[in-house]
Amino acid sequence: MNRSTIDLWVGLFVAMGLGALLFLALKVGNLASFSTSESYQVQAKFANIGGLKVRAPIKSAGVVVGRVSEIRFDNESYEALVVLNVDAKFQFPRDTSAKILTSGLLGEQYIGLEAGGDAKMLKTGDNMKLTQSAVVLENLISQFMFSKAQEGKESK
Question: Residue 58, exposed/middle/buried by CB under 10 A (0-12, 13-18, 19+)?
């Protein structure tokens, strides 16, 4: 093999490596899936969103049905207002509940939708009434420690 052929193969290998790094960076940042499909926006208020981020997936029955498009603080209710972009091909009843869940023990957070039974469907601009905030691991640990300390005091 001559020098130019080796240089060509090395250059091709480096280009593929850079492409793989770019793909992984987009995948980690939740930017790998660009969607141009029709969607509708609904809003949900949560007392605590934990580590939820913009572009976090919205799942129902394990299927990604949309993405979080915006997170802001509501000065009137002192809650987090989350704007959800749901793909138009997925229709949910108006009494659908939204929960902030975690993938695995310490994985990324996402919004899980559980369909209700209302005959009317959600449409752009609707507010979801039934929400459940994120479970914060630090709060659970502190509650556990406090209850154990109380048990220790009562047994004396």
Answer: buried
- Distances in Å between the Cα of 63 and the Cα atoms of 15, 57, 59 are 34, 9, 5
Query: Is 97 found in the same domain as 69?
Result: yes
Report whether 111 contacts 103 (CB < 8 A): no
Considering the entire predicted model, what is its pTM? 0.69
Q: How far apart are CA 114 and CA 72, in angstroms?
A: 23
Q: How many CB atoms lie under 10 A from the CB of residue 102? A: 17
Question: What is the domain range of residue 5?
Answer: 1-32
Q: Are residues 51 and 107 in the same domain?
A: yes
Rounded CA-CA distance 116/130 in Å is 10
pLDDT digits (tens, 9 = 90+) for 90-117: 999 999 999 999 887 667 889 999 998 8
